[in-house]
Amino acid sequence: MSDELDQVRRYVNGIDPPDTETLAAVRSRLSGAGAASGPRRIDRTKRIQIVRWAAALFVVFAVGAALLVPTLGHRTPHSAGKAHLQDRLARLVVDDVNVTVAAGNYDMTFNDTTTPSTQCAQSSGGPEVGGTGQQTTVTTAEPCVTQNQLPPGLSIENTLSSISGHGTVDTNPYAMVTVSDVGSLGQITLYDDGTKVWEIGGGDYGLSAPGQAGPGAPLSGYASSVEGTVGQVQGALDMEGLASGTGYLNLQAREIQAAQPAGTGNVDGVPVTIYKLSESGLLDPNVPGQTPEQITTIQAADAIIENSGFAGKTTWVSVDSEGYIREQKTEYTLPDGSAVTEDTILSNFGCAGTVIMPGQSGTSSPPAGCVSPDTAGSSANAVAPSSGSAQGSTPTTVVPSTSTSTSTSSAPPPSSTTTLPAQGGYRGIENFCAVAPLTGTIHYDGTSGDLSGVLTVNVGGLPPDDDVFVNWSDNDVRAPVIAEFKTDAGGKSMQSSLEVGRLGEVRGVAIILTAAAFPNPTLGHLEPC
Amino acid sequence: MSDTGVTGTPSTDAALIRRSVDDPQCFSMIVERHATSVFRYLVSRVGRSDAEDLLADVFETALGARGRYDSRYDNALPWLLGIATNEIRHYRRSEMRHASMLRRITPHSSRGNGTIEAIDAVATDAELHEEMESVRRALAALNDSHRQVLVLCAGLGLSYEEIAQTLGIRIGTVRSRLSRARQKLRELLEADGQYRAYDDSSRRDSVAEEHTK
């Protein structure tokens, strides 16, 4: 006689241990890895600096590298094996990321808000990465610090409340410049090419001396400063973003396992569809194409996050009608109880110009004739700093001038845009009639813009007790599956089971019904009545 | 207190891992100590075949991260299981493999409730006793979070605190999740005809209590 726990215990203990071959494979792998995994030396001599804006960059980087993972973005809709609508929605979001990154560049504004814990933070006690031993490091990492513990020039307000800024990102090749207002420390400009970092203001990391040009400094070495300053876990999350210029979004895309529709809205006057995502916060350091510097940085950050008890984060992305991610907002709670919100608004896709990195020369202007897809006139918020705004006379760190002037909302959209189907949702009414062997109709009503009530399915001739995908066949840019329903024992659609993930992009030319189960065989189709 | 035993081998995992930072060969002792437990956890989550592949991944990741092991924890098993959990998560990103796995283990009719995630890969050892086969089926029908906590608690004997450490959740969450998982498992076993009423409720309670220590 045993209870259910006993049975589980006996079941698990009844599993044969790994055989000798498996163990030999483990030892062999470790033997190979061990030779290259000696003790890690962490540079702990970094100086005081405020890098809270790195948290905001973490969000921005999430949009910054999908072009490096075309395999995800180019999956066909029917390649899914995990037959669930949320997974399909997740893929739509991945597609949106790819559309955004494929723009080549964009401007951004960001705001990073931290709500300190009501209790003093506990030492994570884990990895000894970061931590400069300087007072600023301690005070910014511990929310219970009192004002008189802070060094001169710093206040609780500007270390713990919010940091805002703006910048420009080029996605291929990767380059980014941001300008952040960090309160009493003033303005800090950061350049990042995915391998090296130049910080102008703050700690002047990567510069020969404050106000002078420099060769840049390794990304991994920046970790100790970031983690020491903003806290170990927060810093590790920031470094995940900073280290991921060649693969970060790949991982983030892989982390986008489930997406839920979260309504509609507008960003800077542009109508958007909002999706809610859950992510682990971990990155895969083994994504092909990453530099040793990036691998090292991601491994270090992952280890900290894994050991911290950090339980993941929630992200909302707002996607416009052309598939551009207009806003990404992430919320997470750190193990010390503090909560962080990172909000980034993107704009000026494809017309943000080129980021001129330190030591480079050239023009930052966008392509001639480039017209921003921004349509509401107020979305060109990300104004790159004027030259010398943060580094005085340093001539090699010229920040590109803003391309806002080219983003005239009154201009007609570029041809490349007009050829793309709209993706924000078809707001019309359409009726589809089944073609044999199917019977019945599907009614589409997108006039409200809401997902509830958009589809009325009344289709017969389907397999009994099955899950069925509704493919809006001419959703060309993003995956065509817009909904899923179940069939009853007689093979009829069950309206009560219907889950709608998104509107059709344009007026439909046909609806194709496929089995939800891999490999998604076609069950039949309906045509406009 | 010395952290080495009479043979000079570090007595705790923490000490062993600390030493392995300078001498990676020491890490092999961690493998010896925990490979079976980690492997059983993997098998219970993804099946034997894939567990054999993932086992090396887990220890390789652990080796790379050993420099950041929190030495406050003497027992490294929760840490390793946490890594295993992440490896499983990444493994499942491979949708084709996942689809293949689902087709292999899941009759199509059982996916009728639309919660594909709740039906997962669980060891399919043909030699399992009938009762164990029933447990396997019941575990497979649980959602992943319930199965995780049951395997960690009952299967591997982790305490609530260690489970919380492994999964990155609060102890209170572990308790409530385990309670719900037990209830659900009991219902499934009863429905399968394999669960027999357990007269001595105090013993059942003691099973749970021993895992809180």
Polypeptide structure, described:
The complex is a heterodimer of chains A (529) and B (213). Chain A has helices at 4-13, 20-34, 53-61, 70-73, 85-102, 135-141, 156-160, 219-230, 232-242, 248-255, 292-308, 415-418; strands spanning 105-115, 162-171, 174-181, 187-192, 196-200, 217-218, 259-267, 270-279, 313-319, 325-333, 339-347, 429-434, 439-445, 455-460, 467-472, 481-487, 493-500, 511-515, 522-528. With 529 residues, chain A is α+β, with helices and mostly antiparallel strands. In chain A, α3 (53-61) crosses α9, α6 (135-141) crosses α8 (219-230) and α8 packs parallel to α11 (292-308). The longest helix of chain A is centred in the first third of the chain and has 18 residues, at 85-102. In chain A, 57% of the residues are buried. The model of chain A is unreliable at 34-84, 119-160 and 376-423 (pLDDT under 50). The longest helix of chain B has 21 residues, at 171-191. Chain B is globular. At the A-B interface, α1, α2 and α11 of A face α2, α3, α4, α5 and α6 of B.
